[in-house]
Amino acid sequence: MHDNPQASSALNFSLPDHRVIALSGRDAAAFAQAQFMNDLKVLAPGHWQWSGWLTPKGRVVALFALLKFDEETLWLLLPDADPVTFAAALQRFVFRSKLAIAVRDDLRVEGAFTAPTQARGDALSGDPASSVELDLGADGGTRTLRILPASTASHDPAWMARWAAFDLEHGVPRLPASQSDHWTPQQLSLERLNAFSVKKGCYPGQEIVARTHFLGKVKRGLALLEAASAVHAGDDLRASDAPLGHLVASANADGRHLALAVVPLEREPARLTVTGEEARELPLRTGLAR
Question: Which of 142, 148, 164, 213 could lock 131 by a disulfide, CB 3.0 to 4.6 Å apart?
Fold first, then answer.
């Protein structure tokens, strides 16, 4: 762990837990529009949005950033999930579409807690032939993510943990495999990221998502927690020793133990514990919606 994180904030560090899947071909945009939960038609070339892929029952398989270079060139920036398994699952739905799906093993992803040189908000900079820059900063500070064919960035688990903790503080659920296929977009509060659409045409799970939205049946959402000791996705959250919810993502950085939990939106104040250790709820930060 760095003694002075602020002094090294300009450091570029690798993010090997982020991988890129490329969708290319005449039907790339149409395929993405039919499969993913956000509305790609409102996204201009040179921009990106949060999106995800759902099961037919409306559970989130994975959350990712979808980069649109043009109608025939899309990238999925996929954190945590196995890109090979994900791409193979997508491939089963290609049928006769003119589309290629490829895991870009030739690309590297790196981050830095500094302002981007050109990217702003949902506008990316660069091109897929060289390097691409994204603005992933928010009210908690500046961040830059770069995707490039070669990188000399250091591999430092401490900086990776800080990156993940920043995500959690802003309501980006970093879902491990154990939490895939478990939660609806509303239970993960993904409306905070503008990550799904209830108005566009059909996509897997759309009926569940739209029904939940329009019938006002959203009863659970994300809460940010800080625990007294290390916590893990899958741990139970209790309120006054009664079951309250489950942790869906965790990050342990700089001596802080953070987690996101799915909990009832309406609940009485109570003493919170995770695996017997006290935890406290923190307000979620804003600014990562795209």
Answer: 148
